[in-house]
Amino acid sequence: MKKHIKIFDTTLRDGEQTPRVNLNTQEKLRIAKQLESLGVDVIEAGFAVASPGDFESVKLIAENIEKSTVTSLARAVKKDIEVAAEAVKNAKKPRIHTFIATSPIHREYKLKMTKEQILDRVKEMVSYAKSLIDDIEFSSEDATRTEKEFLVEVYETAIKAGATTLNVPDTVGYRTPNEMFELITYLKKMLKGLKMWIFLCIAMMIWDFQLQIRLRQFKLEQLRLSVQLMDLEKEQGILRLKRLQ
């Protein structure tokens, strides 16, 4: 079966966090239309709850994009999810992208939550997002520093709650490409019994000379790469769209 690599572009969300980059609503719409013309599958239009301006930008993009899926980021928090749903509801292909941190350091010092509390939150918030928008993406922030067995529990919980896309982010650039390959292979094996399509997003530090061999080695039913335009990135972990030419 022919493999299809889906392109998820986060220029308008992660890219705008680059120092000295401040796009207005019309500039974001122009970029979104250009991304659509390039054939980008998913446009992460922003973080709708972050500000009224971000909400309006996501909403405008959602109302004007015809072919690409339009998504807004949202923490695994009810208000975030409600605002994201409101912003993308008029899109031809709306999506909510919700996330929660899962690594030990985040659980202990940022969230102050146990593993059980994390799993309960994932179940509750993914289910709630699913009740508002059918297409739900779930990310495990700092996935690559999360215990592998617990990571499987988290993703399994998200899938059963209604997530159709899984994001496996290497948030702090912790893993090499080979290690990411091994992690994705492990997750694919452990989650294969679930009767649904799963898109695995590789948000990682990937060196240009390894790109071609990495794409060949990922023998997944569906592969999705996170990218950004040019050099707009607050961290070195997001692949540049131009490298996929």
Features:
2 domains, single chain, about 240 residues, 8-stranded parallel beta barrel, 8 helices, alpha/beta, TIM Barrel
Description:
Helix 5 (115-132) packs parallel to helix 6. The chain has 245 residues and is an alpha/beta fold. Helices cover 42% and strands 21% of the residues. The protein has an eight-stranded parallel barrel, surrounded by six helices. It folds into two domains: 8-209, TIM Barrel (Alpha-Beta Barrel), CATH 3.20.20; 210-244. The radius of gyration is 17 Å and the shape is globular. Mean pLDDT is 84; it is low at 202-210.
Helix content: 40-55%
CATH superfamily of the largest domain: Aldolase class I
User: Ranges with pLDDT <50 over ≥5 residues?
Assistant: 202-210
SSE string, helix = H, strand = E?
EHEHEHEHHEHEHEHEE
Strand arrangement, major sheet: 1-2-3-4-5-6-7-8
Main sheet makeup: 8 strands, parallel, barrel
Number of helices: 8
So, CATH architecture of the largest domain? Answer: Alpha-Beta Barrel
Q: Which fold does the CATH topology of the largest domain refer to?
A: TIM Barrel
Q: What count of structural domains?
A: 2
Strand element count: 9
Distance between the termini: 23 Å
Organism: Leptotrichia hofstadii F0254
GO biological process, one term: L-leucine biosynthetic process
Keywords: Amino-acid biosynthesis, Branched-chain amino acid biosynthesis, Leucine biosynthesis, Manganese, Transferase
GO molecular function: 2-isopropylmalate synthase activity
